[in-house]
């Protein structure tokens, strides 16, 4: 990890370096992704099956693309009972947290005959993409599905890439069943996103697509936005630790590496007011890296996007944290809650030395689908709001409209929209 003094130049360089990781900077893949989307849109299942053979080596067809009840039962037999118990505990925490986010329809009425309100309606069909390949993420299944269930979504389908033998990770299937997925299809990549966006003979069209994936999945979601809604275009994982000299350097180093192991493009940043802590964290990170199973990935991540920044003051450190707007922000300072009140931009905030980032990834309850690449300045974590839509309710009686109809006519004529004005005026012709 690079150790730097925090100043305006170092901060600018870091922000520019981090932005290079955005999916928006991978235009060379867009034409290929767009070709795949077009093929699935025009050829349906045939294109999905062809791409699945090409990229996953699996012989998927109309007869086996949907996961059967028997396959799910077999998955329960394969999953360790202790893991199943943990999944069920996490499910309760995640559901409890997200149920508190629910919104409800409301209506206000006046004696004059005016009724105004807002009707909250869950989305009808949502598609959840779950990565496969080299990694398995049952936690992502829970985090994407449970908020949709809490919102009242009618139908939740899931797509995930199969192994070459046509099977899906047992833990993924069990997590999907526990979370309440209605249908699971064996397809991944851009072809899965296209299939959910436009529908095929086997896979239904959805209203919204959520879930993480590789660059092809991210670009496919970007391309189909507008035909369907999406959650976000996620970039690589990020963690920023804000610490002073009270922090435990071993804990801080371990937390930084917890994100660096995700991806060679993941970002791990420490901002501290303590030179001593900076030095000790660097030493601990090197020791941990040498011992961990994904040390090659961790080392590349740290070499490219790992920083230890030493700030003159905590105010300067907080300002930098707000500018970076990290996906995960840990605050390990003497007055952590006071520092938290000054944080404007972060996907999730972890307070105190025992609130490490993986607690949020797996168990605590808040969603781990978070804004990346600085988008925490204007985006929020995935939640119940992502699975509802709102309709405005307007009802005026004649008596309520009469005192104000000429105001509306004047407004419309000011904009030279005479049909708008006429639509109001015609109701009072006899007057």
Notable traits:
17% strand, six-stranded parallel sheet, globular, 431 residues
Describe it:
The chain is α/β, with parallel strands linked by helices and 431 residues long. It contains 18 helices and 14 strands. A 6-stranded parallel beta sheet has the order 1-11-10-9-12-13, with helices on both faces. A 5-stranded parallel beta sheet has the order 6-5-4-7-8, with helices on both faces. It has a 3-stranded antiparallel beta sheet with strand order 2-3-14. α9 (215-224) links the parallel β7 and β8. α5 packs parallel to α6, α5 (81-99) packs parallel to α7 and α6 (138-151) packs parallel to α7. It starts with a strand and ends in a 6-residue tail after the last helix.
Question: What's the quick description here?
Answer:
With 431 residues, this protein is α/β, with parallel strands linked by helices. The chain is 45% helix and 17% strand.
Our Rg estimate from Cα atoms comes to 25 Å
Q: Biggest β-sheet: count, sense, barrel?
A: 6 strands, parallel
> What would you call the structural class?
alpha/beta
Shape: globular
Query: Unreliable segments (pLDDT under 50, ≥5 consecutive)?
Result: none
Question: Order of strands side by side in the largest beta sheet?
Answer: 1-11-10-9-12-13
Distance between the termini: 79 Å
Helicity range: 40-55%
Instruction: Figure out the total of helices.
Output: 18
Q: What is the number of strand segments? A: 14
Mean pLDDT: 94
